[in-house]
Design a protein that fits this description.
The chain has two domains: 140 residues, Farnesyl Diphosphate Synthase (Orthogonal Bundle), CATH 1.10.600.10; 170 residues, Farnesyl Diphosphate Synthase. Helices cover 73% and strands 1% of the residues. It has 14 helices and two strands; from the N terminus they run H-H-H-H-H-H-H-H-E-H-H-H-E-H-H-H. Strands 1-2 form a two-stranded parallel ribbon. Helix 1 packs antiparallel against helix 2.
């Protein structure tokens, strides 16, 4: 099969199967993107999702996860061949979708090699930053557990983490839009939109942190900067404060989307903000339950948000 045909087959399979398998709502966002943006953005997501799987597989010792992330990062940067995953890593994955993601990593590297140089550079840049954030996470929480939780030290530490794993994605989205669409991307200057994109990305990550608080605490991780993660009152107070911060940052994403030319692109960009704001509203109503359960937006509400986004509604 000619190289172009192989590449197209791999792209279609990756977008339609891998993406749908490992992402519930972001898959919808990616499918709405204009063609020139969709491929590189989908690949960047799959690479970041792969590194996330490597970092979060708790059944594998931290040292081995760090080593796998090192190999993965070097390969993405073009400094090494695509890694062969240790059997211990693959066997530890109970979710068949995540296992398949690792099995398909060679195809993702082939896809990266087929991208135009500018697009490939952006994909390498954003995934490199994300991997660095995940490695920092593993180091920070290496000895943490439910009985001996570790909390971030202060507000700047939380903002830095949000930048490393999602603010950089807002920057990537913006750079990719201007690179592939040029003046057809946005009415706003690149510098203004870049700042908004970073804030939006940080806001979306903050929503994830706030939503996953109970699960993280069970593993000994506390991303909220509190003196004592066992102090329920302090946790709830801090959670409420960051919910309001997240609401504001996600709102910047709505302003970001309003500057975009294409209706499909506006819908793709604003959809995560709409889901995030509903999540935040549910957390506000949940009160102290956020320390025990994970707030989740029902699938029907996600699809309703998709319809509303497509119609230009908020």
């Amino acid at each position: 099969m000619p190289l172009d045909d192989c590449f197209q087959h791999m792209r279609n399979d990756s977008e339609k199967q891998l993406l749908k398998g490992v992402s519930r709502s972001f898959y919808l966002t990616l499918r709405l993107l204009p063609g020139p943006m969709r491929g590189p953005a989908s690949l960047a997501y799959l690479l970041a999702r792969t590194s996330d799987t490597l970092a979060d597989t708790a059944a594998v010792p931290t040292d081995l996860r760090m080593d796998c992330l090192d190999q993965f990062g070097h390969a993405i940067a073009g400094l090494a061949e695509p890694p062969r995953w240790p059997a211990l890593m693959e066997n530890a994955l109970a979710d068949p979708r995540e296992r398949r993601l690792l099995e398909e990593s060679a195809g993702l590297f082939a896809w990266l090699g087929c991208l135009p140089a500018g697009e490939a550079e952006l994909v390498r840049e954003v995934t490199g930053i994300i991997i660095g954030g995940q490695q920092l996470d593993l180091q920070r929480f290496a000895r943490a557990d439910r009985e001996n939780p570790v909390a971030l030290t202060d507000d700047p530490a939380l903002e830095d983490y949000a930048w490393r794993v999602a603010g950089c994605v807002g920057a990537f989205w913006t750079k990719l839009g201007f690179l592939t669409l040029g003046e057809r991307f946005s009415t706003a200057p690149a510098s203004v939109l870049l700042e908004r994109g970073v804030t939006y990305g940080k806001g979306l990550q903050l929503v994830n942190i706030l939503r996953d608080l109970s699960a993280d605490l069970a593993a000994g991780r506390c991303y909220l900067p509190v003196a004592n993660p066992h102090d329920t009152a302090s946790l709830l107070d801090m959670h409420g404060r960051w919910v309001e911060r997240a609401w504001d940052w996600v709102g910047v994403g709505i302003d970001y989307a309003d500057t975009l030319h294409s209706r499909r692109l506006r819908a793709a960009t604003v959809l995560p903000a709409m889901i995030a704001r509903e999540t935040l509203e549910r957390m506000r109503r949940a009160g102290g339950e956020v320390l025990q359960t994970r707030v989740k937006v029902p699938r029907a509400r996600v699809y309703l948000a998709l319809v509303r986004a497509g119609l230009g509604m908020r």
